[in-house]
Amino acid sequence: MTRAFSRISHFPLLAVLLATAATACTTTSLPIGVEEGRGNGTAGADDTPAAGPYEGLPDEIGQQRLEWADCGAPTALQGAAVTGEPRDLPDGTPWQCAPLTVPVDYADPEGATIEIALIRAVSSAPEDTRVGSLVFNFGGPGGSGVGTLPSAAAEYEELRAGGFDLVSFDPRGVGESAGIVCLDDAELDEYDQTLDSSPDTPEEEAANEAANEEYIAACEEHSGELLPHVTTTNTARDMDVLRHVLGDERLNYFGISYGTELGAVYAHLFPGKVGRTVLDAVVDPRSDPVAVALLDAEGFQLALDHYLADCATQPDCPTGDDPAAGNDVLSGLLDDLDDAPLPTRDPDRRRLTQGQATTAIAAALYSQDSWEYLTIGLTEALDEGDGSTLLLLADFYIGRDPATGQYSNQGPANAAIRCADDPSGMTVPELLEHEDEFVEASPVFGEFMVRGLSGCTGWPFTESPEPPAYDAPDAAAPLLLVATTGDPATPYAGAQRMQEAIGGADVAPLLTYDGEGHSAYTSGDDCVVEAVNARLLEGTVPEDGTTCG
Length: 549
What we know:
By secondary structure, the chain is an alpha/beta fold. It has 19 helices and 14 strands. Helix 10 (about 325-340) runs antiparallel to helix 11 (about 355-365).
């Protein structure tokens, strides 16, 4: 189905490109009760003791015992725990994996169950200084926490050393947690090679419609029983079962990108269980898909304009020394690709299509440190007629291993979760009414992103039983929001709206990072890192309005 840009914070190539920088900020800390967010002392055990009863769930779920076993650290593309030789952390701590059993349908807790794949690294702190578990969601929807945590763990080592077990999971429908299955790898290659990102004729529109119908039918055939139940609301319920089984009185949580939406939904459902929480790269909570997608288009265009301005100061910039004209250069490249995809060095002889090039450009905007790779890719494409580097960037973004041709289930999971939350989709005539708005918001991305509004058209069901809700004015602890002014995927204005949706500055203070990229904490900015670490390790919260960078 048509894909707009997902709110994925970490993915293999760009995650390893994140560099560090040092800036200063002024912060006023507000003390919080010393016990806030602390667990019950079970952190670090090889096997988590059986939990007590959980209201509304059968004992085999509510009182289950997590049996942790050493496991190899998977890659984010694998998206699943793998057995074999463990890949230890710097101090020799092995990664441990375990399954968590949850109901498929919380309205029928005695019915069918699924297993949620977990991974953790126990804290290296002395037992008497341990805080408990810190649960991560790195973005998506559709991103694998089991795959991402090991690749990103170095960025969070100070939190582990300070007293947290680092824990993540594949959300329901993702990776090893009953992962949604639609097309196979060969079919996905064909889908990406043939789908027209900017259909110009009735025949091209009809071909796209047929391809989307085939995609949806495959999802229903292989995963139909699970599709209605992979909502963000149900994943938030899964997180509370995880909190309970881990033995923590409150959920300590670090959510990034889509993970901020998940964290806000959790706070709405379980306000009394909110512990030390950080939501970084905050999504826009509005239910109007057109308004949210327009903001996203503006965000990616802003980041692209910053790249073009920087590139214009460099020798041999492929888009030229005029940043404004750079948009025309890129639009011309994409138009040319619509007519004639570029050859690549791909072993499967795939060519670079218009849609893949657009995805590649967007992918490289997630971090300022990846701009150089965009420059390489654009130089190859514009000067040499070679789409290899741009295809590689697109592959990493959508979860395709270029070495094996295997896909993670990130794409189908993303579609399934978004459509479970909001299965309404716009018809082509309806979305085309907004095309001019999108092209005005972004001459490069607008036409591509408006097509994402039709993504759930034809989905097997048309209404979500529980759309996400975010208001949590009575949360037991403040949720620290962190937003970046130059964020392409979750623009800054969305964080301001989420603050209001949750309940205002008292319950959701906002820390601003004046910089570029998606996820402020992993930018390496000292001010942001110190403020977030103080929130999680010491229980202090920066004053609303604090600015770093």
